[in-house]
Amino acid sequence: MSQRTDEAGSSQIEAVIELIRSKLAPDQAAVVEPFARKYYNQVDTDDLAGREIADLYGAVLSHWQFARKHEGDTKVRVYNPRMDEHGWESTHTVIELVGPDMPFLVDSIGIEVNRQGLTLHLIIHPVMAIARDAKGQFERMVDDAKGKGARYESIIHVEVDRRTEPADLDAIKAGIERVLNDVRVAVDDWPAMTQRLADVIAEAGSSNTPEGADDVAEVKAFLEWLSNDNFVLLGCRDYDLVSKKGENELRIRSGSGLGLLRETGDSTQSMSFAALPTQLKAQAHLPNLLTITKSNTRSTVHRQGYLDHLSIKCFDAKGKVTGERRIIGLLTSTAYNTNPTRIPLLRRKVQSVVERAGLMPKSHAGKALATILEQYPRDELFQSTPDELFNTATGILRLGERQRIRLFARSDAYARFVSCLIYIPRENYNTEQRKRMQAVLMEAFEGVSSEFEVHFSESALARVLIIVRTKDSVIPVFDVREIETRLINAARRWEDGLQTALIEHHGEEHGMRLSRSYATAFPAGYREDYAARVAVHDIDLMESLDPRSGLGMNLYIPLEAPQGRINFKLFHTGAPVPLSSSLPMLERTGVKVIEERPYRIERQDGSLVWVHDFGMQLAGVEELNLERLRPLFHEVFARAWCGDIENDDFNRLTLLAGLDWREVSMLRAYAKHMKQAAFTFSQTYMEQTLANYPALTAQLVKLFKTRFDPAEDADRDARSKQLIKEINATLDNVANLDEDRILRQFLAMIQATLRTNFYQPGKDGKPKSYLSFKFNPSLIPNLPEPKPMFEISVYSPRVEGVHLRGGKVARGGLRWSDRMEDFRTEILGLVKAQIVKNAVIVPVGSKGGFVVKNPPPAGDREAMLAEGVACYRMFLSGLLDVTDNLVLGEVVPPASVVRHDEDDPYLVVAADKGTATFSDIANSVAAEYGFWLGDAFASGGSVGYDHKKMGITARGAWESVKRHFREMGINTQEEPFTVAGVGDMSGDVFGNGMLLSKKIKLVAAFDHRHIFFDPDPDPETSWVERDRMFALPRSSWDDYDRKLISKGGGIWPRSAKSIPLSEQMRKVLDTDATALPPTELIRCILKAPIDLLYNGGIGTYIKANSETDASVGDRANDAVRVNGRDLRCKVFGEGGNLGATQLGRIEFALNGGRICTDAIDNSGGVDCSDHEVNIKILLNGVVAEGELTDKQRNKLLMEMTDEVATLVLRDNYFQTQILSVTRARGTELVDAQARFMRRLGNAGRLNRKIEFLPFDEEIAERKAAGTGLTSPELAVLLAYSKIELYDEVLASDIPEDPYISTALTRYFPVPLRERFADQIQRHALKREIIATHVINSMVNRVGATFVGRLKEETGATAPDIVRAYLATREVFSLVSVWAEIEALDNQIPDAVQTRMIIDSGRLVMRGTLWFLRHPDLTKDLSKTLKRFIPGAQELAESLEDVVGAGYKKELDRLAAGYTEQGVPEALARRVAGLDELYSALDLVELTSETKRDQRTAAAVYFALGDRFDLHWLGKQISSLTADTHWQSLARTALRDDLSAQARNLAANVLRLSPKLTDADELIKAWETQRCTQIDRSQQLFADIKASPSIDMPMLSVTLRELRNLT
């Protein structure tokens, strides 16, 4: 103990004394203080370390209070100190004693504490001289106990394991009191017992025993030796031996009991003697004076050992035994340590043995025998007879140092135990060996208990003494040599058996090597549980552990296993397998783990292997083909351990259905897709169902194998059909409806699968770590609408993803989704928008997405990115695995993939959320596959068009913004306007967007990190700061120079609890709130009364009032989302995807807001990528031909950046233009739009509910209210019209039309047209490019319902309508007209531009109709244009000269209306005359038919029109109500009829007088011939004109009269 510890202990005691002095009254403190000092005086300071002073104070004061009053015997208290009750506390149960001091107290209390299984933590046992008054009241402490009323008292404080149950506390107290009573009687009777022993010694000298005088003297000497402090007397009693009817009985002599043998109760005989068998009772008559043995009872006093039992017999005068004097106690330590030659009785035994052995004393054998006897177990030496001792000692002597096992057994005189002395080679001895030998002896002697004692010396043999206690004093007959043989077998070292078995199994050399490595490797528990031969198999497994997982396994059924029992032995290098890892994996395989036995195996080289043997239950295990299932089970567990498969209940199918791990993974992959596809039932239910029908599950797997295993090619279809028939027959017997639906869904999924990479090995020849399936979604029941044309699902434990395609040639981004539970729902929503968005490009819409299933810990961005890239590559590989390739223009199917569909080589992807920088990664994957698209596979890589640098997406969205503001008469590039935004300047769409006008007043913005507010920004200054931030890598709003923010503004983190609102902020937000939490402030920003709300971020912030936040599917923004009707901005620009739900857009638009859709606004990025892909496809071919190097190709790509952007933005401009024009026509087109939706719906091409388009009832309500479709709704119709027309055109011969195919060249930038015209004509997507380009240019001019309306009116096909439209456009040079109108942006009111475009649209409609009625003219467009363009040009140039004066005034009026609005004169007159230019078509035909020149024909044509006022008649027809489709058809028919009659009239006039050339003369000649009819017609016309209202019947009659004139 250190000095520091002593000082600490002393300071603690002094602190206790200080508490006594401060808390107790002085007179009381004076009494307690010496008590406390004495109390702690002898306590080891280490025992007090760490204890609270208050608790030490409480303990001593509590004990003093307990000892204050005491009378009589020892007082005991057992309790758990509590602060509230006792004023101190302890973590242990406390035993307090106070009583007269006696020997053996502390030892005996310790015995009892141990007997009750308690640990003794602290014992304080001062002996104090205490003076008490007559009533036992504590008066004072004294120096000694000699004074009156003073005595020595033991004050004992014991702390043991805490017990709280009252019964336990009572048991402790009762046990202590019982032991104290034993101590007391032993101490109290000590003088009497000492006298009794003296009396016995005296009587022994005069005993009438038949034994010789020397024997009697030796006994007497021995007893005297015992009385000389070599024996602790604990009890004495005398007995009389009585024989009745042949039965012997020892009767207690009344009053003879002393100490522990005091008489209690009514018993008058020795119960232990009475329990002896009859033959043993007879030994009581044997004339031996002294018997020494061990009692069956352990001592409760002084030492916890079996009591030594001395029996000194009494004899009558005849030498007959009459009784015995019994003494019990414990030999002292001197009795055990004194040389036996110096102990009476023992010395004679030893001498007798030595003499009988006849050995020379100084010989080696003599010395050895002396040593044996000296070291002989002392109790055995006392109890053995000389003969027993001689036989045993000489046997030991003969054993010598031989390395063998020898047993010496001695039976107790009263058969209460058998003493077994075993010698065993010391080197081999261990505890396990002793336990086995102990078990052998217990079995041999039918023992009830046993004790052992081991002795080691310099000898090569260890000595083990085992005492086996018998039942009912009966020792069975035994053969020492037979038992010895059993001991030898039991003690034989397990290691020896292992070596033998290893040599047998592996041969001597390899076996010995393994033996050296594993000889000492196995722990005792293993050796106890398994035979050495079993270990050989385990060693083989440990020597071949999988280097990747460190695992080895063995599934087996133990030989002794009960029914339903199976074991699984798991080996693992280095460390044990945590149960938390292994148990779930095992139980997921369908077994129930009921036990686990772990073993630590340490090889000779120090390497560790842990063996875990799991006992498991599995119903029907006896019926399993374990030889077949074992490797399957091992593989499933190993794969689950390594993460190659998921740990779920699908793994049960290995044992239940005999499936291997990949077949299980295949079913799991299908289930995962079903879950993502919103299948009704949970994965758990699906797992359970397949497990309930293992045979049916195996059939499903067999069907999959038959359909897709390349090796199963023979009669594949027939065998598949037969299997499906069998499966359906089995399904008919499935009673549970839900289970039936689940099983049928799995069947449908397999049938809907077109391709899979399941049988496609990886580069290493092993199965791939992921699975991919290509589906025909139309064959999958219950799949959410809309169903794409194709779907690829990729599954692995690491990543899951889907790729949805709207057609064979499709394009769209791949998203790193964070929606683990419903990413397919997210992708489906995106692909809907993508299909709409892709209407402007060659491929139709597609979209893909994947989730990272095992992300690294949060905060490790690099690790997260690495995992994301790895999963992205795996996802792409899954897509390419099942995609065809093109090699030298030929389709090459993927290896080891059975195809159930046509060639499908087109797969193009793009960047999206989370994958913005992954294009090069995607292209590297494509390169690894040798995919024909090369780096055109993913646009936007390092060698491609950088969308952010180009700002193409934002620029496209800005075209929408500009048009919205232009409609309001605001030029965003010249006039300041307020903006609030979603995003930050580091982002592509937001950052670029906020730099597209220097007139932007960005008053507020937010992203996921910050909220920015600048109530009154300076447009120029703030633009410069935004430009700086855009160039700053990874900037955030926090980087904005706060000095530039206007008064009242600021920047706050979104983590702030509350944000104060300045007066300026409140004004901008139009709110009275003085402070708001960030979420509420964002909501206010979204609802602020500003000019533009621009979304350039990620998330959905606008929904409809009818929608719930949950239905939006963007939980991250639920707290900030607002309804469309609550927006107070004028314009909503959607640079980012999904900023608003479609219903939210519609709600905003119906409330007067200006908005398109994200598909319209941000289609620039998609369009740019499409141009990049198609340009790369072209140039890659050029490179392959050797005309360009890669470097030259890349340089050329970059040089064309600006022109590509121009081509792209043209589509953005025209799409927003047609939406604006269509919306301006209001309800005029509602019926046509309704019919268009009905027709597409009936054809299964449009689901109005999914696209949120109004149904007929709502359309009628809107029409009645004078409200047409909103721009978001029109955008959907526009896309669907393009999609439908694209399909029809692509299926026709239009792309092959020599004239129309020139669109292919116009699609590409000028440098490519000039240098690679021939290669352009060989482009792989030539037809698709032509179809897309033509359709876009057409629909962006005529709108969504144009083609459908003409189909209905004429019955023409879509290709015919396209040809007729193109003929009209080119004949009348409308492209130049439109260009002149568009050049007037921001120069004249937008409404005027729109009106001019609508005016031109009438000519488009009429011209197209005219060509459709002359279909032969459009078969060769080049020829047709050559024929009609000159005539149209001539009429345009001479129109004002040939029309009549009345119509000339009308043209002047129309032109003046435009010029007054700022339209240039020439354009105004050109637009004003467009209606009449239609006549050019008839005039060209007229000149051809009549062989007249066009000028003459035109003069006659227009003169007749003026003569009969046909222009007025045409206006009347146009003014007819056309509220219904049929009214519209009738009106068109009248207009066509009027046109035909005008042409016929002119033809009649021109034919009648072939020699005349002057128009007036020609008409006059005709009038002369038709004067009667003309008069009648003019009268009719006059009547009609005089009518207050003109209706359709009147006009019909008028047209009939015109026919009569011809």
What is the secondary structure topology, with strand pairs?
Blueprint: H1 3-23, H2 26-41, H3 45-48, H4 53-67, E1 75-79, H5 83-86, E2 93-100, H6 105-115, E3 120-124, E4 127-132, E5 138-141, E6 150-160, H7 166-188, H8 190-205, H9 213-227, E7 231-244, E8 247-252, E9 258-259, H10 271-274, H11 278-281, E10 290-298, E11 306-315, E12 321-331, H12 333-337, H13 346-357, H14 364-374, H15 378-383, H16 386-399, E13 406-411, E14 417-425, H17 431-444, E15 449-455, E16 461-469, H18 480-491, H19 494-506, H20 508-518, H21 524-529, H22 532-542, E17 551-556, E18 565-573, H23 579-587, E19 592-602, E20 608-617, H24 626-642, H25 653-657, H26 661-676, H27 683-692, H28 694-708, H29 716-731, H30 737-752, E21 753-756, E22 771-775, E23 790-795, E24 799-805, E25 810-816, H31 823-837, E26 844-852, H32 861-881, E27 885-887, E28 890-892, E29 908-910, H33 919-928, H34 947-950, H35 952-967, E30 977-982, H36 988-993, E31 1000-1006, E32 1010-1013, H37 1019-1031, E33 1050-1053, E34 1059-1060, H38 1063-1069, E35 1075-1076, H39 1078-1086, E36 1092-1095, E37 1102-1103, H40 1109-1112, E38 1122-1123, E39 1131-1134, H41 1142-1150, ...
Parallel strand pairs: 25-26, 25-29, 30-31, 30-36, 36-39, 37-38
Antiparallel strand pairs: 1-2, 2-6, 3-6, 4-5, 4-6, 7-8, 7-9, 7-12, 10-11, 11-12, 13-14, 14-16, 15-16, 17-18, 18-20, 19-20, 21-22, 22-23, 23-24, 24-26, 27-28, 31-32, 32-33, 34-35
Description of the structure:
The chain is of the alpha+beta class and 1606 residues long. Helix content is 51%, strand content 15%. The protein has 68 helices and 39 strands. Mean pLDDT is 89; it is low at 1-5. A seven-stranded mixed sheet has the order 21-22-23-24-26-25-29, sandwiched between helices. Strands 1, 2, 3, 4, 5 and 6 form a six-stranded antiparallel sheet that branches. Strands 7, 8, 9, 10, 11 and 12 form a six-stranded antiparallel sheet that branches.
